[in-house]
Amino acid sequence: MAISSVPTDTIPTNRRTEILAGISTFLATMYIIVVNPAILSQAGLPFSGVLTATILLSFVCSLMMGLYARNPIVVAPGMGLNAFFTFTAVKTMGLRPEVALGAVFWAGVLFLLLSIGNVRSALVRTIPHPLRYAVSAGIGLFITLIGFENAKFIVANPATLVSITRLNDPIVLTFIFGLLLTSVLVVRNVPGAIIIGIVLTTLAAWPIGRFWGDASAINFGNRELVSFQGIWSTPDFSLIGKVDLVNSLQWSLWPVIFAFVFTDLFDSLSTFVGVAEAGNLYGPDGHPRNLNQSLLTDAVATALAGLLGTSPGTSYIESAVGIAQGGRTGLTAIVAGCCFLPFLFLSPLLSIIPAIATAPALVLVGAFMMKPVTRINWNQLDDALPAFLALVLIPFTYSITQGIIWGFLSWTVIKVAVGKSHEVPVGLWIVDGFCLIALFAGH
């Protein structure tokens, strides 16, 4: 596909850069192909069926994001949303998985109504700029934390909550090697630096479990960190259309539907704001580029997820990896989406690239996303304090949603308390209402 077939919105780029960016984004998000089925299978859904649904959703909706919304953002089943589906909707509330899938579908329908009416895009446009900068940087710290955690560089500690691990561990040493190597490649502006770093880190991890160290602690029982578990697997389409659309509309299930709506709302809002800031993906009006189309794509992903047999789809913050690689147009999302499709049949090959191979890329993306904090006026405390809360609570609570909720609420309270209520847009009051509902729905 020629780059000219995907409008660039005047952002300079080229086909090679976009393809490399798409591959980078896929490598950073491909974990969802196996992680999502691992979580939803605990809700009683077949692993192979969820795997097929995950790939189909990621392929179709990433293509829609690229072709329709023309943004370099991957769409896939959301982490956190899949946990809510399994552990709250099914295990705690006792819903049948088919009914929970129905709740996902109706949440998507509600999203579509909000998106078609431009309500969601209007809410994004009301977010004050200091909060936008803070959310972007907070997501960067969150991505960095995920990278360090995937590499087991940062581990849980009962005394201090978290701490650094033993530096003589072969897995950690390999991660450090990959991080420093990828950093040097990035600083030297080597084309495809992130992909090269992932490949070389994978090669460096190959001896672990074979010639030194033991990878069993982080590789689900396999002693070898880089393992070959076959090539071919047969797609399982058994979950397509298994959704229960009637029983999921019971009045008692509307809190579940609203919980899906609010969680996905804040995830998508923060993702679009964060990646727009990271890649300067703004339209002439100063707001995230093609926002209406992007939000509509996100809504379709949620509704389609219920029909295919998985938890809600959402835009992925790991798309920042491809943006850091230079992705600026929809071709990045198209390439990433197409990378998902072969794994309908080749999912065992995913075992070749371990988590520590993509961890350096995630850490570096966090560094790239910190730049917006310099645009916050830290001397203007009524701006700085809400921005700071959003910035730190995203990684500290391990939740983008919580960071954005407390950033928004504190902005409103502080501005009103110091006599600057005129700096709280009408739309932000509506967002604050959603924030309060989301807080109560989460408890």
Write up what this structure looks like:
The protein is mainly α. The protein has one domain. It contains 18 helices and 4 strands. It has helices at residues 15-29, 32-40, 47-69, 81-90, 97-116, 119-125, 129-150, 170-187, 193-205, 254-279, 291-308, 319-324, 330-340, 343-346, 355-368, 381-396, 400-417, 426-441, and strands at residues 75-77, 154-157, 161-164, 313-315. The strands form 2 sheets. A two-stranded antiparallel sheet has the order 1-4. Helix 5 packs antiparallel against helix 11 (291-308), helix 8 crosses helix 15 (355-368) and helix 10 (254-279) crosses helix 17 (400-417). The longest helix has 26 residues, at 254-279. The radius of gyration is 21 Å and the shape is globular. The termini are far apart. It is a multi-pass membrane protein. This is Xanthine/uracil/vitamin C permease.
Q: Which ranges are low-confidence, i.e. pLDDT below 50, for 5 or more consecutive residues?
A: 1-10, 217-221
Please state the average pLDDT score: 84
Sheet having the most strands: 2 strands, antiparallel
What is the global morphology? globular
Q: From the alpha-carbon coordinates, what is the Rg to the nearest angstrom?
A: 21 Å
Q: How many domains would you count in the coordinates?
A: 1
Q: Write down the secondary-structure element order.
A: HHHEHHHHEEHHHHEHHHHHHH
Estimated structural class: mainly alpha
Strand content: under 5%
Please tally the helical runs, counting DSSP H or I stretches of 4 or more residues. Answer: 18
Q: How are the strands of the biggest sheet laid out side by side? A: 1-4
What is the straight-line distance between the termini?
Answer: 48 Å
Helix percent reads 55-70%
Oligomer: single chain
Tally of DSSP β-strands: 4
Pfam families: Xan_ur_permease
Family: Belongs to the nucleobase:cation symporter-2 (NCS2) (TC 2.A.40) family. Azg-like subfamily.
Main location: membrane
GO molecular function: purine nucleobase transmembrane transporter activity
